[in-house]
Description:
By secondary structure, the protein is an all-alpha fold.
Amino acid sequence: MKKLIHLLTLKIKYIIIIYAAIQLVLIFTVNVDYNSDALYYYNLAQKCVDQNEFYPAQQNFYDDYIVAPLYINVLFLILKIYNSTVAISFLNLILILLQIFVLYKITSKLFSENTARLTILLYILYLNTIGLMLQNYTELFFLLLVSYSIYFFILQKNIYLLLSGILAGCAIAVRPVGWALLLAFVMIHFIFIYKNKKIEFSFFYVYFGTIVFIIFFGSFTKLHFGNFEFTSTTGPINLLLGANDDATGGFNSTVLEKGKAGHIEFTDSLTYLQKDEFYQQQAVNWITENPVRWLLLAPMKIIHTFAWDDISLSSLLRMGSTNFARVMKIILLEFEFNKALPNTSASYKVVYLTLLILHHIFYCFLLYSILVGIYKLFKNKLYNEKTNLILIFSAVAIIMIMITVGTPRYKYPIFVVLLPFAAYYIQTKFNLGNKIIE
């Protein structure tokens, strides 16, 4: 095993080329079938293309919420150039290749070149990334913004700190969990002040960059929309999804059905702001009346996020929105393979189950390696403000999930930025050393 890992890390450049080639083949041979949020984002961007307007436009004023405004506008521009799902998949491929580069650079700075190569190998073997390339979710774009913000912070020069702050603002404009990164910067700053008994003014470049982007993007939105919006307004609905009588910790849309707490009878008559206010009030009321139950749901949200990992593999295997956890539940409790995977051949069932099970074994290994790697980092006192930035961002992002709602897709950015710690553990476990032998 040691020799195999060492050989693969040595050949990582060739593996990246093969990886990119495989993705290109998939882009031009697989018929994309968006569903759920991926389809929603695509439709929003298409409407903007039809109206030749940036998002959000006046037509979105009565939507349920404003979602990922920066990402939707990127889709709008891409589709204006070439209106096809192929363009989105190709954009995702570019994001993945850029992610490989920045992940390598971050890990090199934190640990060593050898650990960096191993991190890239783990990222490539994590098959959900290929599945996400053929989808239209915010995860790849959001992760790249967070990763480059972290990388520029690691470089420490003032111009890079400013860029780090701007990219943090961009991340907030894609997903509200981007606030976790800004909070991580603030916490690192306070830790520095506490330890050194002085204020480090270089951090203000990060804050300034974030504020400048928020003002710029919010003002840009106000010009064509009328309201100053710079991020998603999905917080209230996500809070309600995790705080109602039918809440399980995971996504459960029954709360929006007639007779439930989140149902709005004449939804087209209310603006997104009025709906946000309604959802938030309903959630707060339920939490106030059921504080213990809400607290007990918090660990369930972690389970729904981390216990299984079918983020995109089912879609990659042409199984649409198939839930692997549900498939295994039916198989293990009812022994009904046809019910678990209807309208598929026996050979396809074997392929699907084999790949998903092997993937989950690898996922569990990575999750274990991340946890042990973090433990060893602290045990060996190798932590610093750069490693702590990643860890605090991840911790705050997880807390945000515990407050709102859990789903496997939400962990992807957290999981990937933590891969260097898994690589660090594996490197020390197999005694791979730091020196690269060409």
